[in-house]
Amino acid sequence: MVRRPGLVVMAVAVGVGVAAEYVTFDWDEPLRWLPDLLVGLVLVGVAVDAWSRSRGMAWLAAASGFAWYVGTVAPVALYWHRGFLVHMLVAYPALRPRPRLGIAAVVGGYAAAVVPQVWSDDATTIVLSAALVVVVARTYATAAGRRRHHSRVALSATTAFAAALAGGAIARLVVPHGDAAIPTLLLYEVVVCGVAVGLAVGLRGPGVTRVTDLVVELGEERSGTLRDALARTLGDPALQVGYWQSDIGGYVDAQARAVKIPAPGESRSVTRVDRDGLPFALLIHDAAVLGDPALVEAVAAATRLTAANADLQAEIRARMAEVTASRRRLLLAADEERHRLELRLRDSVELRLVRLSDALREASHRTMGSPDELDLARERLERILHELHELARGLHPRELDGGLAAALRVLAERSAVPIQVTVPDERYPRELEVTAYYTCAEALANVAKHAMASSVVIDVVHHDGALTVAIVDDGVGGADPTRGSGLRGLADRIEALAGRLTIEPASPQGTRLVAEFPLGDQQ
């Protein structure tokens, strides 16, 4: 909201500007006097807007605006406004420039402004424009904290201003007969307005909202840290964040290294953050970084919220680890029980039926009557044995007693589709061998039912602490784990062992199913 003194200043600027345009131009030339009038008004308007944030910039912007109108009337003052603009860019956002190079640049800017021949020479204009960028860039390179933010704004504005000056000079050198004068003047007027508005907007700085948004940023950027985000936002690359450790009675950083607190009088300042009335964290930063109390509170809030977010994520990871371990225990228990049941069937029921079948065979050879009935009974018994054998295999593949390699070769021999198997003769944890076997069995069952394939390749590789089982067929493709319980259950089983199942099209056709199992120190 513009207060009454600001309205008075704007009214004066309008009066002075209209008078200057009336004296200098004809009213039937709006493309000349209207842009000229607007430039001065924009500069004075920026001064009014900046008054509450930076009196130094406000004075310089207002002086530049009124000097602009003086230059409109008096050719000798044509470049006076540039002295104030150079001062504003070098000293931004204050009135007094720093360091000595800045002071020299401001003095040189005013000297060039009062001597029309300096800026009138196009070659000199190009050199001075480049020198101005170098001065402001040097200030930016040595700035920290909020000064670094302001220096970045000043450097952007200076670059645009210098580009307009140098571009206009080059155009005048290249284009003959002054044909480039009007276009370059309009471009310069637009850039001056843009520079002034950009400097005014830059005064708002990295506000409270920007700092509190750090929590959201850190949640999205998993590789980020609070220190990095604060350093980037506040413009202090050397910023340190320490967290209170009650067991050692001091602060440590994110890598658990002790944080040394600067002694009073050193160049670095310390801001302490409490939580629930107790020491929680501290920030070691440039003295100019946290000069605004509201900004200090925002940084403290972001620090507390980020720590709470980290604690919550750690708790979630712990719960997920518990769930994964529970799934693994359930899987192992189920496999163990299935194995025990398969052994009981093999060693008790199946063994007795085998003995009974042998007895029937001997009886059929010895008896003299009704051999057909004995043969029929023996055939039925053998069918029951076969079904029982298949049931036992479904509970636990007995081929795995000889290892994964032997089991997969037997599986390939029973398949109606030609299968090429490549598997190392190594032993792995039993639960992993069982899951790898079921992965291949389920994939081959799907190939037989749906793929219409002519060949299958099973490739088992042990590399870099992981076991990879790949089944590739040359069928019609289209396998989808979301449309069948077999692949879904298989994926759950693999994930319970911290593995991963992927299904993708093979080249040039068919399906590639890959199961990856981390081995680590399981072997």
Please indicate the percent range of residues in DSSP E strands (runs of 2 or more): 5-15%
Uncertain segments of ≥5 residues (pLDDT<50)?
A: 218-224
| Structural domains: how many | 3
Mean pLDDT: 81
Q: Would you spell out the secondary-structure blueprint of this structure?
A:
Blueprint: H1 4-24, H2 30-50, H3 55-73, H4 80-91, H5 100-114, H6 116-120, H7 122-142, H8 145-174, H9 181-202, H10 208-212, H11 214-220, H12 226-234, E1 240-245, E2 250-252, E3 268-275, E4 278-286, H13 293-366, H14 371-395, H15 404-414, E5 419-422, H16 430-451, E6 456-463, E7 466-473, H17 485-496, E8 500-505, E9 511-518
Parallel strand pairs: 5-6
Antiparallel strand pairs: 1-2, 1-4, 3-4, 6-7, 7-9, 8-9
Helix pairs in contact: 1-2, 1-3, 2-3, 2-9, 3-4, 4-5, 7-8, 8-9, 11-13, 13-14, 15-16, 16-17
